[in-house]
Known about the structure:
single chain
Amino acid sequence: MTTATPARTAPEDTLSAAMKKGSAIEHEQAEGSAFMSALLDGRMDADGYIAYLQRLRLVYEALESVATTLVADPIASPIIDPALDRLATIDADLADWAPGGAPAFSSPVATAYAERITESTWSGAFVAHHYTRYLGDLSGGQAIGRILDRSFHLDGAGISFYAFDEVGKVKPYKDRYRDRLDAIGATLSAADRDRLVDEVRLAFGFNQSLFAELSELHPGR
């Protein structure tokens, strides 16, 4: 998966601003997918959500495995925070949604997405994937958790993926996260800033493809 036209970030933009502006189209396309629309409208069934969690598990397993190797990396280390880790929450939620065990599955897209994260040799690429997933979980992910809770009458069960109790208040944490991104950006060359933004666009492309795969299998109610 490649981006159509390489990014050219504005030198006056902070890195967080460049990442947001440079990936706006890809972000909008991912959010507007049929699967995500069904999820946000309360039309996705339990099997579809289980399939979503299973695919996310592959991605977060990759992210959190790579994070352990980059805790001293000058580019990636400022944003690595165990309080963000989601793998244990995904496992807990899968146990709630599929108490008898989730069904076997195969996902070429999730596998390729995870491989992109684990096989990237530049830590700036990890920063791009970290931003795309975790900042999204701290933003739109909060709405998804509320919608699931209401649609399936969960009373708070099965949505621990969206609970970030260890980070404190979400808004100040997101602001600090962006500040750390901007500090990273100040150390990068213009070419590496562009490269990092391109990886964000690629990450959103993987998410879009993941939603397309899920839509084929689970069109919603």
